[in-house]
Write a structure and sequence with these properties.
alpha/beta; Alpha-D-Glucose-1,6-Bisphosphate, Chain A, domain 3; six-stranded mixed β-sheet; five-stranded mixed β-sheet; 13 helices; about 35% helix
């Protein structure tokens, strides 16, 4: 597709005008490498062209997802659509739902922003054939993204991602892709997720929690779920609690980035908390802080994994039948912990989508 064709058929006047104002060199760069599915779906800057996140790309990606599902005989099966609170997410989620509906799929479109784990849970719970979450997770405020989950609530891997990309390349002009209006629904699924999550571990004592959602969509549900599980002493970073697509108090809304949790650790010290918890903007990443003799510090992802693995295996009735998985970029400590308990350890490629397999 030529840049001229793309611009002529861009359904968003703003991105069409933006592209029309680009010089030849900029246009060539934007059309050289279309977005592809990476570790966690499509992800890119909010701007015009096939190498970025915009309405045209979302429409074509959704048409492609529908084709892949249809080729697998899943026409008529439910698809769940959710979103975070980033710029453009509401428009992209509704467009996604409308394309799916036009292609013959009943759609559950959440009426409000939801954490990504709620989307994945809903695919399993209903069950649904697929789920699509509009989110750029912990990327900067200038980005957005598109995550695809199949039955079981697991993110796609090869060859499904390549099948979708191939279908995207053959998709019609964006403004010619059929769309059918959809009524938003699905709020009850959030309550079901909360109840299920709260049953994982009940509080057995007084634990004071400091928490921040880093301006993302996980704050309210995290507090509700913790309290439902008996953790009543929960304190939040007020300046970071409400969803805000600009992430005004952090340079980079990733709880693993230096400085991102300074406000959280300050709160934890002020209230003499027992634990500090930071969520990324779509609440599918959790970082943990702990008090030490020299002050508060955040645990690395590896350290948190070691503690969780040891806790689960030490409390398992038959740890010898358990399976523990970590990725190639993780340390070998979890493998050693598994060996100590007689559990099986599996190493996978990078990304939770591989662990979930």
């Amino acid at each position: 597709m030529t840049p001229e064709d793309w611009i002529a058929h861009d359904p968003d006047p703003a991105t069409a005008a933006e592209l029309a104002g680009c010089d030849a060199e900029e246009l060539s760069a934007r059309f050289a490498r279309p977005l592809t599915f990476g570790t966690a779906g499509l992800r890119g800057p909010l701007r015009g062209g096939p190498d970025a996140m915009n309405l045209a790309v979302v429409l074509r990606a959704t048409w492609a997802v529908a084709r892949v599902l249809q080729n697998r005989g899943l026409t008529g099966s439910t698809v769940v659509v959710g979103r975070d609170a980033r710029h453009g997410s509401a428009q992209f989620a509704r467009a996604t739902a409308e394309v799916l509906a036009a292609e013959g799929f009943p759609v559950v479109l959440f009426p409000h922003p939801v954490p990504t784990p709620v989307l994945a849970f809903s695919v399993r719970h209903l069950p649904a054939a697929a789920g699509i979450q509009i989110t750029a997770s912990h990327n900067p405020a200038t980005d957005n993204g598109y995550k695809v989950y199949l039955d079981g609530g697991i993110q796609i891997v090869s060859p499904t991602d390549r099948e979708i990309e191939s279908a995207m390349a053959a998709a019609p002009f964006a403004d010619l892709i059929p769309r059918t209006p959809v009524q938003a629904r699905g709020s009850a699924l959030i309550g079901r997720y909360r109840e299920r999550a709260a049953r994982v571990r009940r509080s057995s004592g007084s634990v004071r929690v400091a928490l921040t959602p880093l301006h993302g969509v996980g704050g309210a549900l995290a507090v509700q779920t913790l309290r439902r599980a008996g953790f009543d002493d929960v304190h939040t970073v007020a300046a970071q609690f409400a969803p805000d697509p600009d992430f005004p108090t952090v340079a980079f809304p990733n709880p693993e980035e230096p400085g991102a949790t300074d406000a959280l650790l300050g709160l934890a010290a002020d209230i003499d908390a027992d634990i500090a918890i930071a969520l990324d903007p779509d609440a599918d990443r959790c970082a943990v802080g702990t008090p030490t003799r020299s002050g508060w510090r955040m645990l690395s992802g590896d350290e948190t994994g070691w503690l969780l693995g040891d806790y689960l295996l030490s409390n398992a009735d038959t740890p010898q039948t358990s399976v523990v998985a970590s990725t190639v970029v993780s340390s070998r400590m979890l493998a050693a912990i598994a060996a100590h308990y007689g559990a099986r350890h599996v190493e996978t490629l990078t990304g939770f989508k591989w662990l979930a397999r």
